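User: Let's play a game. I give you a shape written as tokens, and you guess the letters that built it. Ready? Here's round one.
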């Protein structure tokens, strides 16, 4: 799929020119991302929209996005942890997103009209990640509904599960790792180990040394 087509399809689920929408963050082409980090919804937003960082030839400019993000939010513990995970897992194949794409400082403040899951389902079926790390209880509940043979109380092991999207009759295997506690409470060493686990899981999927 061409990135221009991917972006056009994505716009069916979200206004990419709205600063209050963050479908995902990655380094380059999302189509190359085999590792997903998935939370509940973004806690912060930027003044600039997603399209300010997007190019139909090269994908998402995460480097510039991070510069702008930290200029606006210099005390963003969750983002720091996500970046530790992504650095250890490998930035070029890691995409972070959420079940819901509208930002609120607290999850309970998210309104019902902004709880739409079409976007995350689109990313799953279009990219078909090999490994997913899901954090936050509500995000885990979402994956429990869409994955078979998933022990949602196992926070240690990368579990082989089947992602199912009945609407599109799509099924594929992923390695799933979950964490119920808030991501901002994790130490940076723990975050790095999560990234390593994801990278090792991806290596096993492709039968190559991790």
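Assistant: Ready! My guess for every position:
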């Amino acid at each position: 799929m061409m990135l221009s087509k991917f972006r056009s399809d994505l716009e069916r689920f979200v206004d990419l020119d709205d600063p209050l929408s963050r479908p995902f963050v990655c380094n380059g082409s999302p189509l190359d991302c085999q590792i997903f980090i998935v939370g509940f919804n973004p806690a912060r937003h930027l003044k600039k929209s997603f399209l300010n960082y997007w190019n139909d030839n090269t994908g998402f400019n995460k480097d510039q996005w991070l510069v702008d993000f930290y200029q606006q939010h210099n005390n963003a513990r969750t983002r720091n942890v996500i970046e530790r995970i992504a650095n250890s897992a490998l930035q070029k194949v890691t995409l972070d997103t959420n079940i819901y794409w509208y930002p609120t400082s607290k999850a309970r403040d998210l309104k019902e009209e902004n709880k739409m899951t079409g976007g995350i389902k689109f990313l799953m079926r279009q990219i078909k990640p090999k490994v997913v790390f899901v954090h936050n209880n509500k995000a885990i509940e979402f994956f429990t509904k869409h994955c078979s043979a998933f022990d949602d109380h196992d926070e240690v092991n990368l579990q082989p599960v089947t992602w199912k999207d009945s609407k599109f009759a799509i099924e594929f295997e992923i390695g799933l790792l979950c964490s119920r506690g808030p991501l901002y409470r994790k130490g940076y060493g723990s975050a790095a180990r999560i990234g390593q686990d994801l990278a090792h899981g991806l290596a096993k999927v492709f039968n190559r040394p991790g």
